[in-house]
């Protein structure tokens, strides 16, 4: 771990090492899910429909992904891993930059993370909402959330030593839940820039006292 944030954490959400036949089933299931999403939208993404399109038993789909939320998160995996690579080891201010150089401040990294997560949510908000609303704890059960929380908590405690980094990380992540984000964007008509400005205002509360 560097002085400017989290380094060396494993990327969350990647497929496990598996047998060739299991990997082939996973590939077929994800390809079928992506095709259904492209042709018929989120509403068509049921476990039964995906199994039928992939040519596998529905029990295979449930064993691999547990529920629809798990399946949707797997479909989103490539975009998510790109995002994770950006904040864990990418260029500053989102990433840590050169560990031997000055690098971005923790506050700059938190701001860049929140803005990048808003962009990531904007790009795939409908799918994210489908996954997060599948069960009450779906958003928090996925490995992505734990990684986000750990990353922010580390940076927050560097900004304000002694602060409750976990609680404050949750507070900063809460506005980026997909259902609230979509409500603000599509019902209230908020622009993405307005949402980012609001996130900056929340972040002001974490700045150390002058």
Properties at a glance:
single chain; 210 residues; mainly alpha; Tetracycline Repressor, domain 2; 12 helices; globular; DNA-binding; TetR/AcrR family transcriptional regulator; HTH_TetR; Tet_transcr_reg_TetR-rel_C_sf
The total of helices stands at 12
Structural class: mainly alpha
**Any idea what the shape is?**
globular
Number of domains: 1
What is the first-to-last residue Cα distance?
27 Å
CATH class: Mainly Alpha
**Would you give the CATH topology?**
Tetracycline Repressor, domain 2
The parts where pLDDT drops under 50 for at least 5 residues are 1-10
Strand content: under 5%
DNA-binding region: 46-65
Organism: Actinomadura vinacea
Keywords: DNA-binding
Domain HTH tetR-type: 23-83
What would you note in describing this structure?
The protein has one domain: Tetracycline Repressor, domain 2. 65% of the residues lie in helices and 0% in strands. It is built from twelve helices and no strands. Helix 6 runs antiparallel to helix 9 and helix 6 runs antiparallel to helix 12. Pfam families: TetR_N (PF00440). Residues 23-83 form the HTH tetR-type domain. Keywords: DNA-binding.
Tell me briefly what this model is:
This protein is an all-alpha fold.
Write the layout of secondary structure elements.
Elements lengths: L19 H21 L6 H8 L3 H8 L2 H8 L1 H13 L16 H18 L1 H8 L5 H4 L1 H17 L5 H9 L4 H10 L4 H13 L6
Helix pairs in contact: 1-2, 1-4, 2-3, 3-4, 4-7, 5-6, 6-9, 6-12, 7-11, 9-10
Protein name: TetR/AcrR family transcriptional regulator
Pfam family, one: TetR_N
Organism: Actinomadura vinacea
């Amino acid at each position: 771990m560097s002085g400017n944030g989290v380094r060396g954490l494993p990327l969350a959400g990647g497929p496990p090492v598996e047998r060739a036949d299991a990997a082939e089933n996973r590939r077929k299931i994800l390809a079928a899910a992506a095709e259904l999403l492209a042709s018929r939208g989120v509403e068509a993404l049921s476990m039964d429909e995906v199994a039928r399109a992939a040519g596998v038993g529905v029990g295979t789909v449930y064993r691999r992904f547990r529920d629809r939320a798990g399946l949707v998160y797997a479909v989103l995996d490539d975009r998510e891993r790109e995002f994770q690579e950006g904040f864990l080891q990418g260029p500053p201010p989102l990433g840590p930059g050169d560990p031997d150089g000055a690098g971005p401040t923790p506050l700059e990294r938190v701001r860049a993370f929140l803005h990048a997560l808003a962009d990531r949510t904007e790009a795939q908000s409908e799918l994210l909402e489908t996954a997060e609303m599948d069960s009450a704890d779906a958003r928090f059960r996925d490995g992505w959330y734990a990684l986000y929380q750990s990353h922010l908590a580390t940076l927050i405690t560097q900004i304000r030593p002694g602060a409750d980094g976990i609680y404050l990380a949750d507070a900063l992540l809460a506005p980026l839940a997909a259902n609230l984000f979509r409500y603000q964007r599509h019902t209230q008509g908020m622009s993405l820039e307005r949402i980012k400005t609001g996130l900056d205002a929340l972040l002001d509360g974490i700045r150390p006292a002058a």
